[in-house]
Write a structure and sequence with these properties.
Layout: H1 3-20, H2 36-40, E1 47-59, E2 63-70, E3 73-80, H3 86-95, E4 101-110, E5 116-127, H4 143-148, H5 150-156, H6 158-180, E6 184-185, E7 191-192, E8 204-207, E9 212-216, H7 221-229, E10 234-242, E11 254-263, H8 267-286, E12 290-293, E13 296-299, E14 305-308, H9 309-317, H10 326-335, H11 347-359, E15 366-369, E16 371-372, E17 388-389, E18 391-396, E19 399-406, H12 411-426, H13 437-444, E20 450-456, H14 458-464, H15 482-485
Helix pairs in contact: 5-6, 6-8, 10-11, 12-13
């Protein structure tokens, strides 16, 4: 029998003994009155009632030290002969282990080393831990296990716990910012008959009640723009998005994003609002406007640059994407040793690959503008140059951190763009957009000039300077192998 199996058997035995003595090792509730943080800040001599998980246990005979952890932090518990009731000392020694949840009552005092602690006078078992926690200093070493059992990593690592507190504040800051600007929050469908609003391969599932194939949404854009048609002037949604594509340090298949739409505004108005929002996020969540992201030092307080899509590619590769043909651009991709998929290769994909090569060298912060009209089927053409659209993307640390544009509200132009996308799909481009006739019909009733913007939780991951999967609390993992489970 392994040491771990011995520990498990011992803990099961303790739980059984508690039951036999009339003590439920998994009671219904505990009347907690103070958090660990409140206890730590309390005056010496104050009586506190706290609860949390026991993180370790050092039994020195006449005195026992233990750390209690709750959602606010840690505090040291002390059991001492002649000061802690003998019955409580024996009870703790006999039945409690690291990992157990306990309810504790005691007085605040300061140890000889100056550490604020709780001198325990009462203790209750709130949940007996059967499996031992990972070893304190090494934690979970296997990355797959660490992400699969994220609850253990959060238990053992306060830094990870705090990161997800920041992530909650990240979305709340965005929500409050938009509320203050007069936006209202909406909920739109996740299941759709036609996925739209982005160029992405969707997930497909079957709807039993309707007996039809449906898609998980790849964006909520077309629904929110219908609400602008309906007469709302400022709307947003924070919700899950699903794209059946590849995984890397910046991309996942299911993630949270915010999209907002603002009637009677254009992409110039949008750039000002987005810059203000990003600075608000940085100040509220991270207390700074300066970040180290990958190999870039980013300062959000400096003037945000404007990058011309066509001129940037031309400067870095020598290719003018408005004048060069597909063969010339493909040869340049080969020359630069840029990997690209052969399936569904067309003007859009080739130009996008050239841009990605250039993008990685741009630190930002700034806005990318003047994208060819073929690249964005939902944005208005520029009145100054109809070959490009009024679209911008936030550029940060060599990546795109949000996209916004003056929304296309001409139903004839919109249908023409959808028809172009249809040809791309027919030629093998699985990410090209599908034609949404219902949306075009909505536009025919009239949609005012509108600006729209969306950004995903990738922004949070970048500001944390971590791969996005590290900042998702329960990322989707491959199923465990049966032999590993056993």
């Amino acid at each position: 029998m392994s040491r771990e199996e011995q520990i498990i058997n011992e803990r099961i035995k303790k739980a059984d003994e508690l039951r036999k003595s009339g003590i439920n090792p998994y009671p219904t509730r505990f009347a907690k009155k103070h958090s660990c943080l409140e206890a730590e800040k309390s005056k010496i001599g104050r009586n506190v009632v706290i609860s949390g998980r026991l993180m370790n246990k050092r039994d020195l005979g006449k005195i026992i030290f233990c750390i209690l952890r709750d959602s606010t932090g840690d505090i040291q518990l002390v059991f001492q002969e002649e000061k802690t009731p003998k019955k409580i000392m024996e009870f703790f020694k006999s039945y409690f282990d690291a990992g157990d949840f306990a309810g504790v009552e005691g007085k605040i005092f300061k140890t000889k080393t100056g550490q604020i602690s709780v001198l325990v006078t009462k203790i209750e078992m709130l949940s007996k831990s059967i499996l031992p926690l990972p070893e304190k200093w090494h934690g979970i070493q296997d990355e797959e296990d660490r992400l699969r059992k994220r609850y253990l990593e959060i238990t053992m690592n306060p830094q990870v716990r705090e990161m997800f507190v920041r992530k909650s504040k990240f979305w709340n800051t965005i929500r409050q910012f938009l509320f203050e600007k007069g936006f209202i929050e909406m909920d739109t469908p996740v299941l759709e008959n036609i996925p739209g609003g982005a160029e992405a391969k969707p997930f497909i599932t079957h709807h039993n009640a309707l007996n039809s194939e449906v898609y998980l949404r790849i964006s909520d854009e077309l629904w929110l723009k219908r609400l602008i048609v309906a007469g709302y002037e400022k709307v947003f949604e924070i919700g899950r998005i699903f794209r059946n594509e590849g995984m890397d340090a910046e991309h996942l298949q299911d993630y949270t994003q915010v999209e907002f739409y603002w009637a009677y505004a254009d992409y110039n108005d949008g750039m000002k609002l987005v810059e203000e929002m990003y600075k608000k996020i940085a100040k509220e969540i991270f207390r700074t406007l300066r970040f180290k992201i990958k190999d870039f030092n980013i300062d959000l307080s400096k003037k945000w640059e404007t990058y011309d899509y066509i001129e940037t590619i031309k400067k870095m590769t020598g290719i003018d994407v408005l004048k060069s043909d597909i063969k010339q651009m493909k040869n340049k991709l080969d020359e630069l040793k840029i990997e690209y998929g052969k399936k569904g290769l067309n003007y859009n994909r080739i130009v996008d690959n050239l841009w990605k090569y250039c993008r990685k060298k741009i630190a930002g912060p700034g806005f990318l503008i003047n994208v060819p009209v073929e690249m964005e089927p939902l944005a208005k053409k520029s009145e100054k140059n109809p070959r490009v659209v009024e679209r911008f993307q936030v550029i940060l640390a060599g990546s795109e951190m949000g996209k916004g544009f003056s929304e296309l509200n001409d139903p004839v132009d919109q249908m023409s763009r959808f028809e172009y996308q249809k040809k791309l799909r027919e030629s093998g481009d699985e990410e090209a957009q599908m034609t949404d006739n219902d949306f075009v019909e909505a536009l025919k009733y009239g949609m005012p000039p509108t600006f729209g913007f969306g950004v995903s939780e990738r922004l949070f991951a970048f500001l944390e300077n971590k791969p996005i999967r590290e900042t998702v609390i329960f990322p989707l993992m491959k199923p465990e192998k049966e032999d590993k489970k056993e």
